[in-house]
Design brief:
2 copies of one chain form a homodimer.
Chain A: H1 4-16, E1 18-20, H2 21-28, H3 32-44, E2 49-51, E3 54-56, H4 69-72, H5 75-85, E4 93-96, H6 100-108, E5 116-119, H7 124-130, E6 135-138, E7 141-144, E8 149-151, H8 153-159, E9 166-169, E10 173-174, E11 179-182, H9 185-196, E12 201-204, E13 216-220, E14 226-229, H10 238-243, E15 246-249
Parallel strand pairs in A: 4-5, 4-9, 5-6, 9-12, 12-14, 14-15
Antiparallel strand pairs in A: 1-3, 2-3, 7-8, 10-11, 11-13
Helix pairs in contact in A: 2-3, 5-6, 6-7, 8-9
The structure holds a DNA duplex.
Chain lengths: ~250, ~250
DNA sequence: CGAATTATGTTCGTTTGTGTTCAAAACGAA
DNA sequence: TTCGTTTTGAACACAAACGAACATAATTCG
């Protein structure tokens, strides 16, 4: 049975990521044993994870819909989000992919109206629906808990039913030859299908992606129409940049 | 039947966010038992939420993943959830539909393993993924914000790619002839497709549904394999029950 | 008016929430 | 490892809250 104190415990846990039994007992003015019983209950519901001495946030999906402070403070990503959102025309049909950068774009679209946005990013859904003025579509697919993404063949099938005016996708890594990579083949197949079925594709990636590597190749920079990032990509071969897409550096 | 005292209770609750039975009894000069009856009534209308010792304002907008709150108090629904979950065999492929009763079933499945669960109920996703031991699939579809359901033709298309061992669906109303109804044609089409594409269908509905009506017909009780509810459905014509599905009354 | 229905009060056994104690388990440092 | 400390969960106890059943008062309606 959920009681108000449980909600307070959840709030405190979410605020601090980790709480101690003793702290909660004092804060809520009950005994240690009562807090323990509460934590057992909340852990059974999967709302927290029990650790010796207290509790932590559960790993993975459960933060869906929860505005994570980390990303809100990430000025690079929110700048990219704003810049990319300016490419989205009113009334258009847009696809939004997986990753925190795509979620920043979603945040920048909150006050727009008349958009039809399809996404396979469950984290983006509450953001997109916040304004209540856009139609939100969701792809099908297998849930990948690590990032609340929908991937796999079912995702590909469902998005092939559409043709997007604009697709906004991210990637895990970007090498100096202008190739885009991800960790998961299932996600790569989704991204490839999206590129195929969209009139225009925007890649959003902050410069941290320049240093990384990942195993599965999605596509080449030249397959996308616009590359939206926060810093000029010095790491890329100049020739690659020249032959590639238009470049949009998010203003500070 | 709403009476003036109910309005006063609502006012006091809204003023203080939380009220105690004892306080209300004194303030309104009636006995504790009367206040309890009032609170039961108001909670049934969704105007307040019952808590031990009193009542609170209903929790506001349901955040995906944070929704748990409201249903946990509803013992009827969690009993139905437990009973229905006992019908789910290990290793089977299950579909889970829209509605708070279906979410109760999800909650009862948390500790199961090896299931493949597909759902068009976004609220059910964080619950289903809590254990981390099951595969969660999501249908595509248009997001209906009122209940975080995915509906429409895209939802139908994506679930037709599967065949389920067991489908668990709810309904908004159930009339005395044993017909199931919903408010939204888009959702009805999904439910119909689910029934078609499942080896076995379980309808979950608490007895509050017996009194209601809704415009769009989903199917007849005889189209489902099992009807799982909390009280014997006296309102139904006995003949209907006899010809219909097996009945599972959730034990108290 | 009287009968039937509804609302409220009263009683009482049951359930629930919390506190307290204590032995076992987990942890951390030597 | 071993020792000492902290944390834990089970068991028990108690008070508050609950709901069912019945009784009584108020009201509706024929």
């Amino acid at each position: 049975m959920m009681i108000p104190r449980h909600l307070k415990i959840l709030d405190l846990t979410r605020r601090d990521s980790k709480v101690r039994v003793e702290y909660l007992a004092k804060a809520l003015n009950v005994t240690l044993q009562t807090i323990r019983r509460d934590l057992v209950f909340l852990a059974e519901q999967g709302l927290i994870e029990r650790v010796h001495g207290g509790a932590t946030l559960p790993s993975g999906l459960r933060n869906i819909g929860y505005e994570q402070r980390s990303q809100l403070n990430d000025t690079a990503k929110s700048r990219i989000g704003d810049a990319c959102a300016s490419e989205v025309k009113n009334g258009s049909t847009v696809f939004l992919g997986i990753g925190t950068t795509c979620e920043s774009v979603a945040r920048a679209l909150i006050h727009r109206t008349g958009l039809m946005v399809m996404t396979n990013n469950l984290n983006a859904i509450p953001i997109l629906s916040a304004g209540g003025k856009n139609t939100v579509m969701v792809t099908g697919g297998r849930l990948r808990e690590s990032d609340a993404g929908l991937v796999g063949p079912a995702a590909v099938t469902s998005l092939r039913q559409f043709k997007f005016d604009l697709a906004i996708i991210g990637c895990s890594a970007l090498d100096e030859n202008g190739d885009l990579f991800d960790y998961d083949l299932d996600e790569v197949m989704v991204s490839q299908a999206v590129i195929e079925t969209s009139r225009k594709t925007v890649l959003v990636a902050d410069n941290a992606k320049f240093d990384r590597t990942a195993p599965a190749r999605i596509a080449s920079l030249s397959d996308v129409s616009l590359f939206c990032t926060d810093e000029p990509p010095h790491q890329l071969h100049p020739a690659t940049v020249g032959a590639g897409p238009n470049l949009l550096i998010a203003p500070k």
